[in-house]
Amino acid sequence: MSLSCIKTPVLLLCAIVILLAACPATGSAEDIQPPETVIQEWEIQWFNEQMQPERLTSPSITEPWLEANTHAPANQIPKGYTGAWIHIAVPPTAGWPLPGLLIGRLYGADITVYNDGNLLYRSTREFSFERGTLLLELQPKSTASDLYIRINSMERAGLNSSVRIGGYEHLSHSRVAQAIPNLVLGCSIAFMALIMLLISGYLNVRQRKPWVLLGLFALSASFLILTNYTLPYVYSTAYGRLLLFLYDLSMLTVFPAFHMYAATIFEGKLTFYRTFGRWFTAYCLFGLLVLVAYNLAGDPLFVYYKLFTLTLLLPLLLIHLGLVFSHSVIQSVRGHKNSIILASGFLAFTVMFAADLYRFYTDESQPMPFLWQIGVVLLVISLVIVLARRISADHKQLVTYSQELEQFNRQLQRTEKLKFISEIAASIVHEVRNPLQVTRGFLQFISGKSDEASKSHFSIAIEELDRASVIITDFLTFAKPELDSSIAELDIQQEMAAIKTIMNPLAVMNGTVLQLHAADKLYVLGNTSKFKQAFMNMIKNSIEAIHTKEDGMVTISAYEENGMAVIRIRDNGEGMSKEQIARLGEPYYSTKAAGTGLGLMVTFRIIEMMKGTLEFRSEQGQGTEALVRYPLVHKPT
Ligand code: ADP
Ligand code: MG
Fold first, then answer.
1. How do beta strands 41-47 and 488-491 pair?
2. How confident is the model at residue 148 (pLDDT cuts 50, 70, 90)?
3. SS (H, E, C) 308-359
4. Ligand 1: which of 574, 590, 614, 627 to mutate, judged by most atoms within 8 Å of the beta carbon?
5. pLDDT surpasses 50 at 266
6. From the alpha carbon of 596, which atom of ligand 1 is closest?
7. Are residues 221 and 377 in contact, defined by beta-carbon separation less than 8 angstroms?
8. Tens digit of pLDDT for each residue in 327-364?
9. Looking at domain 39-161, which CATH architecture does it have?
């Protein structure tokens, strides 16, 4: 899997996310109704339900009301109080067949609403999530009326947005539409995370760890998105506690998972990073215990719950984020690609988060932060890309390993065969050479005494015996090359020129042109006759590969490259397939009717003895190139 394969789906996903997030929360446009009335101001009266129980049913008539508005919403409960009465002056609502009131954001655990003395709405919460929205159905009235909201809460009570009065249906739509992007984002990330976690069961141990960590990170992030939004709490008060628990749980898992996942990306020792990661994870596990205890035991443990899952967690989070960010930046600078991708995702998240904060503090209506969620998506995407790159790198490595293994296996087989042949050759050569020498001696002796007519026959016989002896000696040097110790410094230019002179007649006979370009001052160590034998074998093969062609050409070049002497023999003959190349040097491997299949075996052996390498490149129908590399000897000048 390459990066380009993931690019398209990633871009698509980005586009969908941005579209979803950018889509305005509008309701249906068909209904022709009077425009909404937006109320920006209201009044507050604080109370303490223990000390002033009578104020639970109605606000005080004597105590003053405090002015509040969208710019100064004053929703922090002052010391000594447990809640607030809010007074909203509602204008006439007769213009709408079914009027409604929507407060986009307000704080409070228990909320009770009275309109002109009648109880209109009541909701209580058993969990400590204070944020909410309030949507009410009003009576159509031709005169203005007073709306009193009683809020009991822990820290904050009161409105945090303007009050919209309009058609109930329309307001209800707009409230739901606002939550849809969150829902879609959260659910899609959760879906992806669940699939990742499911698949992890099929992976090997090495791959599983980053996969599970990323799955856990994505799942926790999706829960944060889903449970951070107010609407689920408003619609399902019964599950509020569970939602809140999931939120806290996600807070405690998302960061350690991120920390550990990032550790799998970074390179190097990371001593402090890992130590902090361990402590951080241990702390989060402890926080988890506190969270469970608080959920079981309830309010008495609230102080500890708050201390461990919020107050103390925050500085740790900052250190963690700082560590991840600094490491990813440092490693990006060093050119680690995965770190660059991680750093970009992280940066995207930070920019989105900062943009949210900027909007919150500069826009007077204090809009709900939502860009951070896009940041989370971008971060998750960057992490997924890193994971994909890892898998693809793993795969590549696996392929390389198996190729190397195959090559090694072939080499092993060849060496085994060679060893066997060498041993047999050595023993046979010894056995045959002696009788040959004896026979030659006798032949010479008899020839001295024979008549002139027979003498020529004897000399032919002796010549043939000598030829046989040379072949056998060659065979012996192949079997035991170390026996031939006449090693000298060879001038490649000179050697190749001599080889060309020897091989030229054969080339001419085959209608092939033999060309030589050899640089001077290339010196290597070796035995001159072996050296010639090796190259003559290869050149002969090239000439033979050309057999049918008319414009046959064998080019020999010798030059220096990276401190090595390179000799290249190139022909435009029939070429070889990959399988053929793989078999070169194997004893008795030949495609020729009269071939022995021993030429290259000997060649490989000679080059190896001279500490050189031989490599073939070939294309069927195009030609073949043999590349020999020898270590250069630098001659003092
Ligand atoms: P032989 O020449 O006796 O067949 P070699 O060991 O010299 O044995 O070569 C083995 C085989 O390698 C040849 O039969 C031929 O198929 C192939 N070969 C070697 N060199 C070339 C070349 N330059 N072009 C095409 N095939 C070649
Ligand atoms: Mg040959």
1. unpaired
2. very high
3. HHHHCHHHHHHHHHHHHHHHHHHHHHCCCHHHHHHHHHHHHHHHHHHHHHHH
4. 590
5. yes
6. 3
7. no
8. 999 989 998 898 999 999 989 988 998 998 888 778 76
9. Sandwich (2.60)
With respect to CATH, is domain 488-631 assigned 3.30.565.10? yes
- Is residue 628 helix, strand or coil? strand
What Cα–Cα distance (Å) separates residue 156 from each residue in 303, 429, 473?
A: 16, 103, 103
Best probe residue, ligand 1, of 506, 570, 600 (max atoms within 8 Å of C-beta): 600
Atom of ligand 1 lying closest to residue 626 CA:
23
> In the CATH scheme, what is the homologous superfamily, with its name and number, of domain 181-393?
Rhodopsin 7-helix transmembrane proteins (1.20.1070.10)
Q: Is the CB of 254 under 6 A from ligand 1?
A: no
DSSP 3-state of 45 = strand
Q: Where are the domains of the chain?
A: 39-161, 181-393, 410-479, 488-631
Block residue for tokens 């909410």: 132
Contact 152, 122 (CB under 8 A): no
pLDDT score for 473: 67
Alpha helices in 236-336 (DSSP H): 240-265, 271-297, 302-306, 313-333
Per-residue pLDDT tens digits for 27-77: 444 456 788 899 999 999 998 877 777 777 788 888 889 999 888 888 888
Helix axes 452-479, 371-449, angle to 10 degrees: 150
> Range with the lowest mean pLDDT among 245-249, 298-302, 401-405, 566-570?
298-302
- CA distances from residue 162 to 15, 34, 589 in whole angstroms, order as listed: 32, 18, 90
CA distance 233 to 221: 18
